[in-house]
Write a structure and sequence with these properties.
By secondary structure, this protein is mainly beta. It is built from three helices and nine strands, in the order ββαββαβββββα.
């Protein structure tokens, strides 16, 4: 089990800033409706406001990176078999008040700017390991 946190971190939500304007709602090349951020109703911006601090957000978080659980059933079937099962989950959960996709954005040259369009994936891996003693290995153990 491993996790990490960042407290007192602020980030510029560039995704919401680019999509939070009314000019993106009606696309002239369509005509069709474009995607806008839900904040467009709060700010009423017609054009991008690059000097506004409205999109600077508190990005404090606690993230559980992975958890591994395993259980060994020990000796089964009269001490001739062992069984161990395991389960590992990556990117388990994140506790944050940040409304963007991921407040952990310190990648490359865009430190402190959220340009992420896709969330990080969550993966689950399970395993099963069995060990069965054969009659030949049992005879070898009793002879030695």
């Amino acid at each position: 089990m491993a996790g990490h946190a960042s407290v007192g971190n602020y980030i510029y939500d560039n995704i919401a800033a680019n999509r939070g304007v009314y000019n993106n709602l009606f696309r002239p090349e369509g005509p069709y409706l474009g995607n806008v951020a839900t904040s467009v109703n709060d700010v009423n911006f017609t054009n991008q406001q690059y000097l506004s601090d409205y999109y600077v957000k508190n990005a404090s978080f606690f993230k559980m990176d992975y958890i591994t659980l395993s259980y060994s059933f020990g000796n089964l079937i009269k001490n001739t078999a062992n069984l161990r099962v395991s389960l590992t989950v990556n990117n388990v959960f994140m506790i944050t008040k940040y409304t963007g996709i991921d407040p952990e954005v310190n990648l490359g040259s865009s430190v402190g700017i959220d340009n992420n369009v896709y969330p990080r994936s969550k993966s689950v891996c399970s395993g099963c390991k069995s060990f069965i003693l054969t009659l030949k290995s049992l005879q070898h153990e009793t002879n030695s």
